[in-house]
Each structure stands twice: as C-alpha cells, then as structure tokens.
Amino acid sequence: MPAGHHVHRDSPEKEVSLESNKMNMYAVPNPGMPGCPPGLEYLTQVDQLLIKQKVELVEALVGFESNNKYEVRNAMGQNVFYAVEENDCLSRQCCGPLRPFNIHVLDNFGQEVISVTRPLKCMSCFFPCCLQELEVQAPPGNTVGICYTTVAPVLP
What are the boundaries of each domain within the chain? Predict the structure, then answer.
C-alpha cells in the first residue's frame, strides 16, 4: 500500500470508500426501493448521467470496429455504471450501425443491472414489419420496455 493511505480493517465500508475514491468510482448504496429494479436505486437520486465511449487505440488507428465499451458517470465525473456491447465480428464489420447487439450495463461491483437487446432487422420503409426494435430489461430477464422505429409517409 502506498505511503499515506490508511485502510480501516474493522470497517469494510471505509475500505470500499477509500478504494472508490482512488479509482474515481461511486460506491452506489443498495437500500432496496420498492418498485425500483435492483441495482438501479441510485438513478432515483440523480438528474444527469454522462456516457463516455471508451475508444481502443487499435480501433482508432486501424478502423477495425470492436465491441463498444462505455463509462456511465454522474455529474461529478464518478463512474456509476459500465456498459459493454456484445456481438460478433462479422456483424460489426458487415452491418455497421444496423448490426444486432446486446449491451450489458454493469454496476461498479460487476453485477448486470440492465440488458439492452437489438436483433438484426432490415431497415427499409418498404418492409415496415422489419424495422428496428430495442428491448430493455431491468433486471435482465424482466422486460421494462421495447422501442420501435416508426415510418412516416413521405409528403411531396
């Protein structure tokens, strides 16, 4: 341990707090609120979240798309969640922004609190049954919403 750092062994909360401050993370309290999905209680206390994509050096230099990773921060810049995209290399390279994906949102303890799924769909107004959709589950396995694209008629 570096000089000047103190850890109180009799208080695990203090140890987590010191470690969280060192890594610029916020140790989210887990009081268990009725009607709020587990792990998302912190969202009831904030009015703003900042999402920052982590770009890998290889991806930036070569242009080879990799799974996206995001840091979700509070207004003070502390990490409160992480989001990790999951899909296959072929979909990323061939389908680009229309690719199917799963995004796993994790809390600072590595527990998945939100799952976002978008299946592969054709993006065309000629096939409205195949427009994009996105399913959100919180906690994973409990669907809280599905978003669909809509088609507006083209006016002359």
Answer: 12-109
Report which of residues 48 and 1 the model is more confident about. 48
Instruction: Say which residue, 13 or 72, is predicted with more confidence.
Output: 72
**pLDDT at residue 19, as a whole number:** 40
pLDDT tens for each residue of 59-85: 667 766 778 899 999 999 999 999 999
**Residue of 142, 115, 145 whose CA lies nearest to 133:** 145
DSSP the chain: --TT----TT-HHHHHHHHHHHTTB--------TTS-TT-GGGGG-S--EEEEEPPHHHHHH------EEEEE-TTS-EEEEEEEE--HHHHHHHGGG--EEEEEEETTS-EEEEEEE------TT-GGG--EEEEESSTTSEEEEEE----PPP-
Beta bridge partners of 51: 72
Using DSSP bridges, classify how beta strands 79-86 and 101-107 pair: parallel, antiparallel or unpaired: antiparallel
